[in-house]
Amino acid sequence: MVVVAKDLMSRKSLSILNINYRYQLFAALTVQLITFTHGISTGWLSPTLFHLQNDHTSPDFTLTVTEISWIGSLFGLGSLLGNIMFGVLLDRIGRKWCMYMLALPVICAWFLIYFAKTHVYLYVARFLIGITGGGNYVVVPIFISEIADPSVRGALSSMAMLMLSFGILAGYIMSTYLDYYVNPFIIVIFPLLYLIAVTQFPETPQHLLRKHKISDARESFKFYRNIPKTIEANSLPELRTAFEELKDNILKANGKSEKLQVDDFFNKEALRAFFTAIMLVSLNQLSGSFAIVNYLSDIFAHTGTDIDPNTCTIIMGVVQIFGTCFSMIVVDRVGRKVLLLASAGGTALSYTSFGIYVKFASSEIKLQYNWLPLVIMTFVIFSTSIGLLAQVFTVIVETLPIKVRSAGTSFSMAALSCMVFVALKLFPELMEKYGLDNLMFGCTAICVVGFLYVLIFLKETKEIMAAYYNISHHCICI
User: The Major facilitator superfamily (MFS) profile domain covers which part of the protein (predicted)?
Assistant: First the structure.
């Protein structure tokens, strides 16, 4: 057994399929079930709102544009609460208990959706879904960063955006082809499975060390490195050295945690970084990149195309996955700034084309070229996916000075949640009041401003602190 364990410790393969990383991979896949559930809950909304406006048989109530805007936007307020609540609890009660708590709001939300008698039920459900989403982007990245070996941390972290995109696509498909009352029964299975599966994994070694539970931390350390329980740590010099280094680093950090001063926030470098964060968060949300994901079916319905709006929405879900994969593959080769410029510029051109089509195309043209809105929106979704949705938080984290990076990231997440609320609240109301064409032109203007800011003021950033690597991947667009 000792020989086997030594062999495990000596393998250097970077593949996440290496036996050394087996439990790290299992744990990462398990916790991403809640991300997948969050994606389903996001994608479910668009076809469902279209259904509730055009078919009032199930459930038995109608929705106004104002009510739709509240159903969409309360997600943002819930996300803000989730950011704050789980940020406070993470170090107090531990990663494991926070992961248990993540499942409860979304489970309650799907019961409310099933028993909905009025739009108020959907208000509360969306708020609860937002709490899980906001907490997810705090808890899961930290958990993965603490259990993962540095050589596979990036790969395990990158699962988040993919799982979210696959979840959104699944939500589009399920709400399009399944009855309103069938969806909750299926979707609630995922957080329940997550809740059961998470019990199989121990607390992270880092948190246990901070609580001075040395023996438990050592066992957790061995578990996530696939070292059998029967092997004593002292019999493996590599394991003992690695654990002792981790313990010393954690205990030293606890002993001399440096307090932040006012001057740390109000200096030229920090203020510039915070201004950049606000600009990028505003570009992320006010460009409509996330609002479109939530209201796609309504948008296609407003174009006058005779292709089923929900079918178009499903196709857009597939395009978003391709955009996410493309961004993951090329980001370290071409850089963040290039992707942001391509994303903002491509989105601006696509919005302009979409607005021109809606405003000037005659009924005959719309009938003859009914596929054109689908093609243009494909470019919109692909463009937003490669930068505006995928890279904004990477750049924010890399731009912030190290000393205020944690506080700055929390501030940026809170600002993002507020912007989500504003964007989702205004988007359907502005579309109803001013028309889809003018809304597209307005979003174009924001993309152009963002493009110019990135081009002139943003410096290329590629280096990231290992402890913050995972946080940078939860852009998403909530």
Answer: 27-462
How distant is the alpha carbon of residue 119 from its chain centre?
A: 26
Nearest to 203 by CA among 161, 151, 142, 153: 142
Helices (H), 55-199: 65-93, 95-114, 119-147, 150-177, 183-187, 189-198
Q: How many CB atoms lie within 10 A of CB 18?
A: 18
Instruction: From residue 121, give the alpha-carbon distance in Å to each of 104, 105, 110.
Output: 17, 14, 10
Mean pLDDT of 266-281: 89
Question: What are the percentages of helix, strand and coil residues in the chain, rounded to 5?
Answer: 80, 0, 20
Nearest in space to 152 (alpha carbons), one of 32, 8, 21, 19: 21
DSSP state of 235: G
pTM across the whole model: 0.84
Is residue 416 within 8 A of residue 471, CB to CB? The reply is no
**Rounded Cα–Cα distance for residues 250 and 308 (Å):** 56
Q: To 10 degrees, the CA torsion angle through 228, 231, 232, 237?
A: -90
Count of alpha carbons within 13 angstroms of residue 382, beta-carbon side: 15
Which of 54-68, 194-208, 266-280, 432-446 is predicted with the least confidence, judged by mean pLDDT?
54-68
- What phi and psi values does residue 247 have, to the nearest 5 degrees? -60, -45
Query: Which tokens is 108 given?
Result: 């309650």
In the block, residue with structure tokens 């410790």: 9
For residue 413, count other CB atoms closer than 10 A to its CB.
26
Q: 220 near 202, Cβ under 8 Å? A: yes
Neighbours of 421 (CB within 10 A): 21
pLDDT of residue 3: 45
Could you give the maximum distance between any two Cα atoms of the chain, in Å? 79
Q: Please state, in angstroms and as integers, the Cα–Cα distance from residue 429 to each residue in 17, 376, 433, following that order.
A: 48, 23, 6
Residue 403 in tokens: 């000393």
Alpha helices in 229-305 (DSSP H): 237-255, 262-265, 268-286, 289-303
Look up residue 424 and give its amino acid: L
What domains lie within the chain, and their CATH numbers? 16-201 (1.20.1250.20), 266-477 (1.20.1250.20)
Nearest to 457, CA basis, from 277, 282, 332, 320: 277
State yes or no: pLDDT of 464 exceeds 70. no
Classify residue 316 as exposed, middle or buried by CB count within 10 Å of its CB (0-12, 13-18, 19+). buried
